[in-house]
């Protein structure tokens, strides 16, 4: 995520309370870090230069920092201080009108243009009116914002009932299953068309308050699938647009767990793009925003991703600490816990796979063989227990296992795992799978045992690329 929101004037209110407190800039930063860690926000660790920018440049700190600042100054001065007293406007002017109607209107523009661009020989003159960065700004207030009022229906609008919402939910579940089995390459256009249809119902229909909130949740989940399929085919900007709007729709529905799920999808996109720092900020935002509603499985999954992005940043100790929190939190879950469809994949197999990837990143950044061994063990368990309907994930498990064995300098075992991935990848259309095969080839090029797999791997890569290109 980009740095804290920019302003053009010094924050004189914050400067006033800062002067009264008697803190130095570094001292205040240290106290914020201490309180944040005590509350479980281990990624909140500003330094003195960041505090200076809040004071002098008017940068607006992200949640949960405004509440921490208010707590610190209240305790230090003996006065009750709120973020508003500190001059921290948690809802910038350009976000004041951003609600259900703005979400559906923007989504209508994006889906319409996306479908037109796919069918056109040239994209000239077909530019989106909103950039990913502009949309990201609207996530700043998610953690504490409440759903906005639903729009007033127009005359002769179609009446939407809970049956209509259930149809959208059922369609979304079908798309999820097909995506897991075949990848996003063959299905992205179809799911975007479905998003456009569902969004038109939300934008132009009339419905009761309960139905309207459920409709926004269903739209958010479906839009999230479109974002994930876009990610799977390498359409990163589109993925970010859909996932941000999906998160906004989830916020309007009042479902904080769904919004947290969509934020972790957004974090995965940024991590895949080689930007683990903003990815980590999304996880922090998701954890904070769902702190009162998340089930143990959701929290465990967020901790696992916190570990992943810390590992990508080369932060071994925070990564290992997050791994332990993830494992401990997962043990708190029980079969009787109610899990929504968007969290159904967060089982022990998924946990082993995610943590196996964390150890793989750690093995690459620390060059410690014990991390590669832990990765191989966890990914082997994941590959063995992964259900066949989650074929893409199973391929990832085997490719990750191959890379772990390469890190252990065991090319024969690496070759076996890669060969398994080749054997089951024939029907999957995923650019991410292509890139993982390329990782295996690059990391294994110094081992002659892998050379026999070079041609089969390249065949898979070329075939998958052709399949994705054919439907673009």
TrEMBL record:
InterPro entries: TPR-like_helical_dom_sf. It comes from the Bacteria. This is Transcriptional regulator. It comes from Spongiactinospora rosea.
